[in-house]
Design a protein that fits this description.
It is built from 13 helices and nine strands. By secondary structure, it is an alpha/beta fold. It folds into two domains: about 5-25 and about 40-45 and about 180-230 and about 240-265, Rossmann fold, CATH 3.40.50; about 50-175, Rossmann fold, CATH 3.40.50. A five-stranded mixed sheet has the order 3-7-6-4-5. Helix 4 runs parallel beside helix 6 and helix 7 (about 130-135) packs parallel to helix 8. The longest helix has 13 residues, at about 75-90. The protein is elongated, with a radius of gyration of 20 Å.
Length: about 270
């Protein structure tokens, strides 16, 4: 039974729960819609917004040398969206452009984003994170192969360093960046103080950092009842734990559907 079929057979498992979603939602990828489908009341307060890089210079340069590239590596569906958009701005067909380059991506949701544009994926790891991708690449001979990492600005170095150790030559180009949302989210202090939130969901380290900046010193520690915290990804979880906060839920497969499934299972 698929996750979708299973969830439809057990409606409203999250009814009565008030859940804070801290990510920027898009029409293509909405965690809020999934949570609401199970009866949750969603409080949306994006901690970050995703915008293009300050410069496309390094990306455009990589595009011009694409015939030399062996692998293109995507680490998020956001990377796919901004990459495809830029190629179209350059009047380049994304499907044709990537047809002669092997594609690797960090997880199934990223692979699905690529497939929507007719781009086939060669490598998707069983563990949906950079470490899983590193393990999967070990079956390939990367010596002197050119790997193009299509990522956010200031990504973790784990993947590039590991691929270099396998002999690969790395091109890294930013296609988007996370910046503070700039929205007034001070209302969250009242939500927290009056114990109105049951869960907080963090989908990125930057969301954790920006949420923490909103809180006055000692505010979280002073809360008599704290919301439970759910994270997508080990890196996000580690940023939460660095603050001394507890994480109650992190799905092994880091996508929204498995997060929803894990939340529902807790309510059964």
């Amino acid at each position: 039974m698929s996750l979708e079929t299973d969830q439809h057979s057990k409606k409203n498992l999250l009814s009565g729960l008030r859940i804070l979603v801290t990510r920027q939602e898009t029409p293509e990828s909405s965690l809020s819609v999934l949570l609401q489908s199970q009866g949750a009341k969603v409080v949306a307060a994006a901690m970050t917004k995703i915008i293009p890089p300050e410069s496309w210079q390094s990306f455009d340069k990589a595009v011009k040398s694409s015939l030399k590239i062996d692998w293109a590596v995507f680490t998020s569906s956001n990377g796919v969206s901004f990459c495809v958009s830029r190629l179209k701005d350059l009047q380049i067909d994304p499907q044709f452009f990537f047809s002669k380059i092997k594609i690797a991506c960090v997880g199934q949701s990223t692979s699905s984003a690529l497939s929507k544009h007719g781009i086939s994926t060669e490598l998707v790891p069983e563990r949906f994170q950079s470490e899983g991708l590193i393990d999967s690449f070990s079956q390939y001979d990367l010596k002197n192969k050119i790997c193009w990492l299509i990522q956010a600005e200031f990504p973790r170095k784990t993947l590039s360093l590991a691929l270099k150790k396998q002999g690969a030559k790395i091109i890294s180009t930013p296609v988007y960046r996370n910046v503070p949302s700039g929205k007034d989210i001070s209302f969250l202090l009242e939500e927290l103080d009056q114990v109105k939130l049951d869960w907080i969901i963090f989908a990125s380290p930057s969301a954790v950092q920006n949420f923490h900046k909103v809180l006055p010193d000692g505010f979280w520690e002073s809360l008599m009842v704290k919301p439970k915290i759910a994270c997508i990804g080990e890196t996000t979880e580690s940023f939460v734990k660095r603050l001394g906060w507890s994480v109650q839920l992190r799905p092994e497969i880091q996508d929204f559907e498995h997060l929803l499934k894990a939340l529902c299972e807790q309510q059964e």
